[in-house]
Amino acid sequence: METKNLTCINCPLGCQVEVKLDGGKVVEVTGNTCKKGEEYAIKEVTNPTRIITSSVIVEGGTGTKSQVSVKTEHDIPKDKIFDVMAALAGVSVKAPVKIGDVILEDVAGTGVNIVATRNI
Hints:
With 120 residues, the protein is an alpha+beta fold.
């Protein structure tokens, strides 16, 4: 039996969660104070994912508006982080940019789009 200890990041409580696995299968989760903590722990040890944030250059933007912040629309597999960041390298868009505009479709083959998070 394998044991993994995690700090839950679903809320400010930061519960210390213990997950017991048997053959890679979760058999017990303890230490969480809510159902979301249990769900987080199970996902984190079986299929960890992340939301990625970055920025891209805006052609026609000036001063502090020469870049726009972007993020993945949904979480992606953790092992795809470096592929996503490599796909974003050198990407630029033309002004104007609106919140929610798709900057890059199906980034790194994840099926997830990169979207703008502010207006430029």
